[in-house]
Amino acid sequence: MNKDHLKTAFLLSAFLFFGFYVQAQSINDQFKQVVEGSNNYQEYKVIKQSHINSLWKNTVDTLQRKEAKYAQIATTLNEREQALKKQHSQLAEKEKSLQASINSANEITFLGLFSIEKGNYRMLMWGFIIALAVIATVLYFTAFAARKEARYRIKLFEDLQDEFKTYKTKANDNEKKLARALQDERNKLAEYNLL
Questions:
Q1: CB neighbourhood size of 76 (10 A)
Q2: Which of 17, 44, 46, 189 could disulfide-link to 39, CB 3.0 to 4.6 Å?
Q3: Which contacts qualify for 6-15: CB closer than 8 Å, 24 or more apart?
Q4: Phi (first) and psi of residue 182, to 5 degrees
Q5: Alpha helix locations (H) across the chain?
Q6: Which residues cross the membrane (predicted)?
Q7: Is there a contact between 179 and 186 (Cβ–Cβ < 8 Å)?
Q8: How many percent of the chain have pLDDT more than 70?
């Protein structure tokens, strides 16, 4: 129960108690009037039948009114208790709905497979971005090193090719010299008719 319902129940109880007290005082006063207004006979009190009947009727009427008020208050309290229970259940449903809304606002469905909180999603995405940046950096430096190695190999190949051209030219020149020398020797031998 909340504080408003407790206040209401307390006020109703105080009202009933005060009402009972006032009516009890009224009945008590009537009883005193009947007893004090009665005649004495020897040591007995003689009370008029009409006074006793009137007192009895007032007492019964008072008790019936009290019971009616009590029933009315019990019904009111029961109705309020039912309303309170209904409000509690509605509040619980609203809190559940609110929590579901908060969860849906704080969660993202990742690849349609599962839900993940936004903070975790951000961390996951930053993790992917950092991993991709690291991979891109490694690939860049690997490609840079490969390009540098390729340039070095191409330069070596060009140097080797130049050396081979130089060797080929020298070898060709030597071959021509040897061929001339051979021809000169053949010509000398032909002069001497040795051939």
A1: 13
A2: 46
A3: 8/80, 9/77, 12/73, 12/76, 12/77
A4: -65, -45
A5: 3-36, 49-106, 118-191
A6: 123-146
A7: no
A8: 71
